[in-house]
UniProtKB/TrEMBL annotation:
Location of the 6-phosphogluconate dehydrogenase C-terminal domain: 180-471
SUPFAM superfamilies, sorted: 6-phosphogluconate dehydrogenase C-terminal domain-like (SSF48179), NAD(P)-binding Rossmann-fold domains (SSF51735)
Catalytic activity of the protein: 6-phospho-D-gluconate + NADP(+) = D-ribulose 5-phosphate + CO2 + NADPH
Gene source species: Mycoplana rhizolycopersici
Broadest EC class assigned to this enzyme: oxidoreductase
Protein name: 6-phosphogluconate dehydrogenase, decarboxylating
Keywords for the protein's UniProt record, in alphabetical order: Gluconate utilization, NADP, Oxidoreductase, Pentose shunt
Gene name for this UniProt entry: gndA
Subunit structure: Homodimer.
Purpose of the protein: Catalyzes the oxidative decarboxylation of 6-phosphogluconate to ribulose 5-phosphate and CO(2), with concomitant reduction of NADP to NADPH.
Chain coiled-coil ranges: none
Family: Belongs to the 6-phosphogluconate dehydrogenase family.
Pfam family, any one: NAD_binding_2
Length: 478
């Protein structure tokens, strides 16, 4: 039997679907799973694709089944299991074999693993895969980080399985070591913001306009045909229109309002903070998930404090207000994406990756969770202005911000006055308002810092005098 083109370890939700996708595109693939029964089940369920799958019960058998230099995808639980699996695999590998971690790794782990293999003759690829189960099976978005040589070895297979946007594959080599996993992390950070902003708009429709889940679903379905067209808006409409098999009510009304998180949102925020890049909408989204998980505390607080003692949302023209909500969501989304891309631009410098922004937007247009028509507009904006300091100052997006930020301001104001929480929408608005204001208010912060800590300041007239006339207060504390 001909040797497999590629190997895959980990036949869980993502690994099994990725393996079927690889086999379906005509690539022979060797597979291995820690629990051997799962391997047998997988092959039994593979139908006609069985012919392209080589099931292996031991690591030795698995390695021998793959044509050298061997690309081996590891698609297992992220963290320590990946290190353990690599340790088990390593003694069986030969020069130029490539271990590819396709799970949701922290890019700092990817850098460590990459460095650890550097002079060993083996190579490491950190590969972000987005699209969930469906994407893995029929075409994910794939973000690759590693050496360019190792990318060349896997390019053909990955291109064959990636999602396509107008025929263009949603896979790219983005740079050395942790580049792929970093970009995947920021993809997820943006996803957190996108989802939170949708949830806040849903809250205004549900608690402000008192609309039913089905009615709100219709609003989202309509928006999905316009500028907000995206996978997340599409599934939100579907989710809102779905009935509970137990009892028949809208299923969303039966779901506990506690959101889970696995870490990529938090990592995005930590890395943004480490580099001093404001990512306020992503931060707000991560914090909102944490707040959501404090269900018991929130219920107790509502008993003690009550809901805000304010007038309910009052809307004279519901149709016009819903139109404003649509534009507000678009404006806020621009803020979140601008922040995500700004974090990647800073990381690109910090880690010497040379991240290609238009390419990143391109490979997110299909396959991944944040896929949308909007990403095509980002691709075009960054292609025309690759060195733009921020997405919102590219000509196309500057026009979009100017056109939609009034809606965001009205929606945030109305929600705040009605006591409806909109932390991510408000963060995006605050970001725009701060970013576009040449003369801010940090002069007072500098004066305060100098007063209590003698930290000094620069003057606007360039005069070489860096401390204020604070007298005995100067340098009073830290
Ligand atoms: P599953 O829980 O479905 O599968 C986990 C897999 O990991 C199983 O094959 C399991 O093997 C294996 N595994 C766990 N611990 C070990 C270990 N110590 N040594 C060897 N194998 C181990 O996970 P998913 O497929 O959902 O996720 C896999 C990776 O993909 C994760 O990093 C996840 O974050 C990432 N990911 C997931 C997405 C999703 O939508 N689910 C989307 C994008 C990325 P066994 O059968 O023996 O238990």
């Amino acid at each position: 039997m001909a040797q497999a083109e590629i190997g895959l370890i980990g036949l869980g939700v993502m690994g099994s679907n990725l393996a079927l996708n690889i086999a379906e595109k005509g690539n022979k693939i060797a597979v291995f799973n820690r629990t051997v029964e799962r391997t047998h089940e997988f092959v039994e369920e593979a139908g006609a694709l069985k012919d392209n799958i080589v099931p292996c019960e031991t690591i030795e058998e698995f390695v021998a089944a793959i044509r050298p230099p061997r690309p081996i995808i590891i698609m297992i639980k992220a963290g320590d299991p990946v290190d353990q699996q690599m340790e088990l695999l390593r003694p069986h590998l030969e020069k130029n074999d490539i271990m590819i971690d396709a799970g949701n790794a922290n890019f700092r782990d990817t850098m460590r693993r990459f460095d650890a293999l550097k002079d060993s003759g083996l190579t490491f690829i950190g590969m972000g895969v987005s699209g969930g189960e469906e994407g893995a099976r029929h075409g994910p978005s794939i973000m690759v980080g590693g050496t360019e040589d190792s990318w060349k070895r896997v390019e053909k297979v990955l291109t064959s399985i990636a999602a396509k946007y107008n025929g263009e594959p949603c896979v790219a080599w983005l740079g050395e070591n942790g580049a792929g996993h970093f970009v995947k992390t920021i993809h997820n950070g943006i996803e957190y913001a996108d989802m939170q902003m949708i949830a806040e708009i849903y809250g205004i429709l549900r608690d402000g306009l008192k609309m039913s889940a089905t009615e709100i679903g219709e609003v989202f379905a309509t928006w999905n045909m316009g500028r907000l067209n995206s996978y997340l808006i599409e599934i939100t409409a579907k989710v809102l229109e779905a009935a509970d098999p137990i009892g028949g009510k809208p299923i969303v009304d039966m779901i506990l309002d506690k959101a889970g998180q696995k870490g990529t949102g938090k990592w995005s925020v930590i890395e943004a903070q480490n580099m001093g890049v404001p990512a306020t909408a992503i931060e707000a989204a991560v914090a909102a998930r944490s707040l959501s998980s404090l269900k018991g505390e929130r219920e107790a607080a509502e008993k003690i404090l009550g809901l805000p003692a304010v007038a309910p949302l009052s809307v004279s023209d519901k149709t016009a207000f819903i139109k404003d909500l649509e534009s507000a969501l678009l404006a806020a989304k621009i803020g979140a994406y601008a922040q995500g891309f700004a974090v990647m631009a800073a990381a690109s410098k910090e880690f010497n990756w040379n991240l290609p922004m238009p390419t990143i937007a391109k490979i997110w247009r299909a396959g991944c969770i944040i896929r949308s028509q909007f990403l095509d507009e980002i691709t075009s904006a960054f292609t025309k202005a690759p060195d733009a300091a921020n997405l919102i100052v590219t000509p196309a997006f500057a026009d979009m911000v100017k056109e939609t930020d009034g809606s965001l301001r009205r929606v945030v104001s109305a929600a705040v006055l009605a006591g409806l929480p909109v932390p991510a929408l408000a963060s995006a608005l605050g970001y725009f308002d701060s970013y576009r204001r040449g003369r801010g208010t940090a002069n007072i912060i500098q004066a305060q810092r100098d007063f209590f800590g003698a930290h000094g300041f620069d003057r606007i007239d360039g005069t070489d005098s860096h401390h204020g006339p604070w007298g005995s207060g100067l340098g009073a504390g830290a």
